[in-house]
Amino acid sequence: MLILLFFWNVGNSQQVVNITVENMGTVPNTYYKDVNNLLNNFVGTWNYYSGNAHLQLVIRKEVHLFDNDDNVYYDMLVGEYKYSVNNVEIVNTLSQLNNVNVQWYDHGLSGNLLLHYSPQPGTPLQVNIDFLDPQRDYLFSRCNLKINPSNLNIMEFFLARDISAVPVGSPTTFRIPHGTHILTKQ
User: Fold this and answer.
1) Domain coverage including residue 65
2) Residue 19: CB partners within 8 Å, gap ≥ 6?
3) Residue 59 in domain
4) 116 in a structural domain
5) Is residue 6 domain-resident?
6) Are strands 141-147 and 125-131 parallel, antiparallel or unpaired?
7) Which pLDDT value is given to residue 10?
8) Residue 4 host element (H or E)
9) Which residue in 19, 28, 64, 154 is deepest, having the highest Cβ count within 10 Å?
10) Does a structural domain hold residue 67?
11) pLDDT at 127
């Protein structure tokens, strides 16, 4: 009986893989873990101000999230955002951050693709994550977050729309301007 229990445990154990672009995949029963806690650097409230425009991102890290489609676990950044111009709110998804009915992939910001991390001093930390505009969910985009280790309170947020099938007569851009925005940690 003890031997049978041992083999069952070995057969059902998870393989832990460090979460970097070089290691990402969808091998069943694998846990893609942020072993070095690099995603923690992106966690927090981030603000961008430019003239009369204000963009706020709120990002947190979720651990050991299960993906039913691929039968794998991930450590993941999830977040929401608010954008206003002249104190007029254009979009605000912040209330969805603590909504337990929202799956990780349905958040305004979600992802974990750490890009070419090097432990060399001064190497920027970069992660690609998905961006979702709930009123324009037919538009698909990834954004890139970049932090220079010499100043962990400044983050570069780059948003560019990917190729999407846009319904006839629908807006073709997100409500947040594309391009690079420099955000400061609150």
Assistant:
1) 15-185
2) 32, 33, 34, 35, 39, 74, 75, 112, 114
3) yes
4) yes
5) no
6) antiparallel
7) 42
8) helix 2-11
9) 19
10) yes
11) 94
